[in-house]
Amino acid sequence: MRRQRGSHLGLMLLASQLFQMGLDNIPPVTLAVLGLNVYLYLFPAAPLMQACVSVQQAYWFKDWRRLLLSPLHHADDLHLYFNMVSFLWKGTKLERRLGGSWFLYLLSVFSLLTGVVYLLLEAVLTELTQDQSYSMACAVGFSGVLFALKVLSNHYHPGGVSYVMGFPVSNRYVSWVELVLIHVTSPGTSLIGHLAGILVGLLYTAGPLKAVMKKCAGFVTLNGYNSQPSGYYNSSGYSGTSGGYSGNHQYPPDYTTNYGSSYTGGLTEQKQLEAAIRNSLYDRGQPSQNEAPPPYGFHLSEEARAEDIRLRRLRRFDS
Predict the structure, then answer these.
(1) Residue 304 buriedness (CB in 10 A; 0-12 / 13-18 / 19+)
(2) Long-range contacts made by residues 282-290, C-beta under 8 angstroms, separation at least 24?
(3) Which residues on neighbouring strands pair with residue 139, listed in sequence order?
(4) Range of weakest confidence among 39-48, 55-64, 176-185, 236-245
(5) Where are the alpha helices (DSSP H) in 234-294?
(6) pLDDT tens digits, residue range 95-115?
(7) pLDDT in tens, 14-31
(8) Does the pLDDT of residue 56 top 90, yes or no?
(9) Which position among 8, 79, 194, 299 bears the catalytic label?
C-alpha cells in the first residue's frame, strides 16, 4: 500500500539531487540500491513496526527477516532523503574504487552484519543493566550501513581531514567524533545502531571480515559461479556523456585509483552535503507529526533529526 503521509518533500529534494548529479554519473549498483530504498519507502514490504529490528522481535520472537527489512525502510521522506544523499556520495566513490560486483557484495554483508551487531550490543546492554528497554528498542534505516561505509571511505584516506562543526578532525577519528556529536545534540538517536555500523566497518578494515568475504567469494568462484580469478570482480563499464566510459574491466577490491572526484566535482563529503542543503533546504518544513510514535520506545526517525541538526550547523558555519 502506498504511503500517504507528509508532503513527500524529501522525495522531491532527492530527485533534485539526482538530476543535479546526473543519472549517467551514478554507478549502477549505487543507483539500484538507492532506487530500492525509494521503492520500499513508497511501497513498503512491511509496516515500520514490523520492519524495524530489535532483540525482542528478532531474537525472542524469531522474526529474523527484520535483519533484511530494517536497513531498507525509513520512517519518513526526510529520513530517506538525508540517508540517500549521504549514500550517493559514499556509494559513487566506493563503487568506482572497488568495482560494482564487490561493492554490491559489500553492501549486502554490511547491511546484514550491522543488524546482527546491533542486536548483540543491545543484548549485552540488557544483561549489564538489567533494563529490558534495550531489548525492546527497535531501529530502522540505512544509517548504520552509512557509518560502516564512512569507516571504509576514511580507511582509504587516512591522512585526510574532515571538518566537523568547523573544526578539523583526522579522517581516522571522524566517525567516532560524529557518533558522539549526534548523540549529544540529539539524545534520542539510536546511538547503538550507529555504533554497530562503525564496528562493522572496523571488522572489515582492521579485522577478519575482509578475509572471510574473500574466502567466500573464492569458494563461489571455484564452484563455477564466477569465471573470474578469486579476489577479482567484473565491473561492467558505465556509459554516458559526462565522465563515463565503456567496456568491461577487472579490478581487485583494493584498486587504488580514485574515481570519486569525477562524479563529485572534486568536493569533499562535507561540501557535498552543504551544497545539497544550500540548493534544496532554504525553505524546508518539518517532518509530519501526524502519526503517534510506536510503543516500546522505538527509534524510527531519530537519525534524520540528528542529520538535520548537523547539516544546519554546517550551513551556519559555511555562511
Answers:
(1) buried
(2) 284/9, 284/13, 284/78, 285/7, 285/9, 287/6, 287/76, 287/77, 287/78, 287/79, 288/5, 288/6, 288/7, 288/76, 290/5
(3) 53, 299
(4) 236-245
(5) 260-264, 269-280
(6) 999 999 999 999 999 999 999
(7) 999 999 999 999 999 999
(8) yes
(9) 194
Q: Is the pTM of this model over 0.85?
A: no
Quick one: cell of 187?
Answer: 539524545
Residue position matching grid coordinates 543491545? 122
Cα separation, 139 vs 127, whole angstroms: 19
Find all residues with CB under 8 Å of 78, minimum gap 6, and list them: 9, 10, 284, 287, 304, 308
Quick check: 134 and 118 in contact, CB under 8 A?
no
H-state helical runs in the chain: 9-21, 28-42, 48-51, 66-69, 77-98, 100-129, 133-136, 143-155, 174-185, 191-205, 209-222, 260-264, 269-280, 302-318
Strand-pair category, 161-164 with 233-236: unpaired
Supply 159's cell numbers: 591522512
Q: E strand or H helix at 291, and its extent?
A: none
Amino acid (1-letter code) at residue 259: Y
* Known catalytic residue at 194: yes
177-221 pLDDT per residue, tens: 788 777 676 655 678 989 999 999 999 999 899 999 999 987 665
Q: Which of 143, 162, 186, 235 is catalytic?
A: 143
- The answer to whether 232 and 250 have CB atoms below 8 angstroms apart is yes
Q: Which three cell numbers stand for residue 155?
A: 580507511
Instruction: Indicate the range of 88-97, 129-138, 164-173, 288-297 predicted with least confidence.
Output: 288-297
% of the chain residues with pLDDT over 70: 64
Name, of 146-155, 163-172, 236-245, 280-289, the range with top average pLDDT: 146-155
How far is CA 95 from each of CA 28, 45, 162, 218, 259, rounded to the nearest angstrom? 9, 27, 21, 20, 9
